[in-house]
Write a structure and sequence with these properties.
alpha+beta; disordered N terminus; 11 helices; about 35% helix
Length: about 350
């Protein structure tokens, strides 16, 4: 009997542990029916007008500050892909860029309009270049970049997977088309030093490109796509490649080439000795050299300031419009005649 009582109490205890809880069920019902306590603002016309007016008063000064910061950035752009082609080849630029016997050296003169304080960032800008094309962007092997020849499954790199029966490191069209124009800056016969270290993301250098992975069988085929790589330097230190492998989302993009660590004074003339190697003529692309400074907001970008000012102006316009409507056709707060049922009965 005692055992039966014990077992009964045990089973009863088990039943009690899984018993129906009215409080829990009620809370779950309120949650599913969206009846939990919540903030439900009472948006009267006066409050709506005040909110839009406040947003406009805040956004417009923020936009002016952003626009002023953007205008303080000094930026110089120089398109050189046409001017660096000899006159005799202006009508056939593809033949010029593919002929290795023709010198690709070019000299450009850049006048500094305003004082540029170091560091001065040197970018190359490409236009009409679709790095986001599906076949192009998938033609790479991130695991091979990290593990080298140890990783064998490189089928995603086609058509640049093998050359003469040997694997290519790094493989794929993205690496094969590496940008290979070069720039040298001279001021009054003195060459300016370009710092080309730490131009790639630290996370890419340390976690995506192997420290013991070296280029192998790269650009050894009959069709050369772009730049070559030093076979004695690991991929984690080949920052040109690392920067290039972070593909762009839009057809017009910039990639960091290096950093000038000397100030450039206003009205100075800088000689740029460049090598015009990269073929953008086959697809109607454009190449530009960009020198720019930066500030607390980053580089030159007028869009952010204009967007803030446009949004602020629109908010103020709406607040004035709502105020005029409210003055012309005032609606008493809480008037039951404006409810849906009363409107329907009045109309009928």
């Amino acid at each position: 009997m005692e055992m039966e009582a014990g077992s009964t109490s045990a089973s009863g205890g088990g039943t009690q542990a899984h018993s129906y809880s009215p409080l829990r069920s009620k809370a779950f019902y309120k949650f599913t029916q969206q009846n939990l306590p919540a903030c439900k603002p009472n948006l009267t016309p006066a409050r709506v007008i005040a909110i839009f007016l406040l947003a406009g008063v805040v956004f417009i000064p923020v936009g002016l500050v952003c626009l002023r910061a953007s205008e303080s950035v000094v930026e110089i752009l120089d398109r050189y892909d046409i001017e660096c082609v000899p006159e005799s080849y202006r009508n056939n630029k593809v033949a010029y860029i593919k002929d290795s016997s023709i010198s690709k050296n070019c000299k450009r003169l850049i006048k500094i309009q305003k004082h540029m304080k170091a560091p001065i960032y040197v970018y190359y800008e490409l236009d009409n270049y679709y790095q986001n094309h599906r076949r192009y962007i998938k033609s790479r092997s991130d695991k091979q970049l990290l593990h080298g020849l140890e990783y064998k499954d490189t089928s995603s790199c086609r058509p640049e997977e093998y050359n003469n029966g040997l694997s290519i490191v790094p493989c794929g069209l993205v690496a094969w088309s590496l940008f290979n124009d070069s720039y040298t800056f001279v001021r009054e016969t003195v060459e300016l030093r370009i710092n080309r270290r730490n131009i790639a993301w630290k996370s890419d250098r340390e976690h995506k490109f192997g420290r013991n992975v070296y280029p192998f069988n790269f650009q050894n085929g009959s069709l050369i796509g772009g730049g070559t790589l030093d076979p004695d330097v690991p991929l984690s230190e080949q920052e040109d490649l690392i920067v290039w492998m972070r593909t762009a989302a839009l057809p017009k993009f910039r990639k960091l080439y290096g950093v000038l660590e000397e100030d450039l004074q206003a009205d100075e003339i800088i000689e740029v000795h460049l090598v015009n190697n990269y073929n953008t003529y086959s697809f109607g692309g454009k190449k530009k050299l960009v020198l720019t400074t930066k500030n607390w907001l980053g580089g030159k970008n007028d869009f952010l300031g204009i967007a803030y000012m446009a949004t602020g102006g629109f908010c103020i316009f709406l607040s004035i419009l709502f105020a005029l409507i409210h003055v012309k056709n005032p609606r008493p707060h809480g008037d039951p005649t404006y409810s849906y049922g009363n409107r329907k009965s009045t109309t009928s």
